[in-house]
């Protein structure tokens, strides 16, 4: 019996994080971490559902909700078997509508909404197979995987044949790497100490706790006052020492020239990378900054809106770390294209996480990347932020600074019913 | 007495153009030209209103309407005097909200919606001054103009001082160029013959009429079947001869390598430019194609979503013609920044038009560009498409292939009340 997607529901879920300045940085001064939360309902006797969300930071989440409703017709009424039988074609259809693509293409609100739906489809598929998403992917043959992808507009950087070759080359060691991940987990790093809105004492305490918990990589928000950035970096180095890695994140606030000047000062604290030093669309700007501040690594991607932009970041030698986001790109299909391009160009993928649900999502991506695509952990760490995990049925499990692979079927993104009720905007109890 | 913007209304207006394949091209196969139509209502005794629209091609226009509603609070309750007194700061506020910018920044649905509101503000301001927008701009001093602009993220390409220098250099000849425009108009080109969905006979007839009307530049849509593109180019050359210019427009359908191969074949018809040969985000791809198909010029911009992308198209030497769009960018403020960057890099601006209302908008931009910024008509032509002008109070006036400057106060974008009623989606008579 095929499973039909009978309807889609979408909710505007917001958490009042701005009240405690969790997640505050130089650009995003007071975010209310939010989710455009999608459920695909089916006629399966088991009440099988697909859940997916796109992450926003508050105001405007209602526009993503409207966009999801405008895209619903691409899934409702279709069967899971029809979609999973050629999920590449499905992705092409939902992103390729000749009228809707005018609103992008592949960017902004429509693409964020696409991510929520596409990821819900993957959640549905993985649940129907009884596997977490990383395992569903890892169990595919190279040929099956390549059929999931849309290479349109990136064939000058990666052909389907090249993608196949990468996957085939690493097919042999897959089982061993999977076992290694199940036993040891995937290396993470923590951003929890470094928020710009936190007092210096709070930062110092959190850094100390992080060291005690076994973290080896710490990220600091910069881009406020440069003297203050320096002072906070000094505090962090005092707490974490010089053997652990310190990363910095400017969240897009600097001009190109300003980024160079400021990073040359912050170089004294030996940052491993600078993340989002300037506008996320500025591929050439990132390339220029990278060249001028070497050996500090360049990291970006959480606002890189599609595979064409990542292609250019790689072609222009603009990045040392590829920070793919699970819901900024148009869902998992497009993420997979980026993983393969990064592998071809030899750039490590360190997914963006935090927010709400992003850690849950990207552990699947990082695990699959290691098991089947890059086959390397060198210079790879997965972001961790310790907020809002209690709202998920299958929250991330961290052990000594490493992500332990999720076991429950799906994309680990399903929220508790009580959370959805409590935090629905604007009428849930948390907002009323 | 200051004028307060008391409320904003927004309507979903759609024209069923897909029924006749007007506007059909290789990517946009069956567009329903649409407008997210904004009115700013005021308490002025004269019932002064500001009108603005953003152009879409049908489905999804309702998402832009939702986005306008989410942005309304940036104008409602403010006075015109407060906004026009520092319209640069106003633009910064409406594009810089720390939560909303997560949905972009400066791209997709939110930026399209921003354009409708920002352009409505300019319409309101120009009406209050009793001038068309081009004249409002042309009468500003260099200092006043630069104060309208937001240079954030482009200072590595254009500083306020450089912008001032450009404007001051050309301040002297302004009156003479304005007079020249009033007498002779701004040179245009026609796309009306070249739609992909038109039969060869219809194309031939329209080309012949175009020649008789005095047009010297014709644009053909390409990117379907290459043999058919060749045949249609041959027909157009038969009709327009080899002294008139022929431009080609692929509307983003080709891969980078495919564009090079196809344009080398189409080179036999001596195209003056190829427009949108591939994905609009692919700055490096455009640069590569341009280098490989010289001397055919490279044109793009209607889908170039912000000033940071235009900056890079200029820095990468990717374009010969800058096809700025009046509503893809975040309204007139951002357009002005692009005009000044293009002037600095010596690249002619040939705005994108057509759709609904874009010709009405961009005549203001091209006139101002000539009078105050570029001071040149060399390699500059303004797109003209002969659809839907009857819906505007102040439709464009074309004389022998040239745009005659609008005289009525405002941005020439106000539609007839009867049109707004007839074409409102989904309940207007045209759709019911």
From TrEMBL, chains A, B:
Pfam families the record matches: MR_MLE_C, MR_MLE_N
Alphabetized InterPro entries for the sequence: Enolase-like_C_sf, Enolase-like_N, Enolase_C-like, L-fuconate_dehydratase, Mandel_Rmase/mucon_lact_enz_CS, Mandelate_racemase_C, Mandelate_racemase_N_dom, RHMD-like
SMART domains given in the database record: MR_MLE (SM00922)
Enzymatic class: lyase
Catalytic reaction list: L-fuconate = 2-dehydro-3-deoxy-L-fuconate + H2O
Mandelate racemase/muconate lactonizing enzyme C-terminal domain: residues covered: 200-296
EC numbers for this chain: 4.2.1.68
Keywords, alphabetical: Lyase, Magnesium, Metal-binding
Cofactor(s) this protein cannot do without: Mg(2+)
The keyword Ribosomal protein is annotated on this UniProt entry: no
Protein name as catalogued: L-fuconate dehydratase
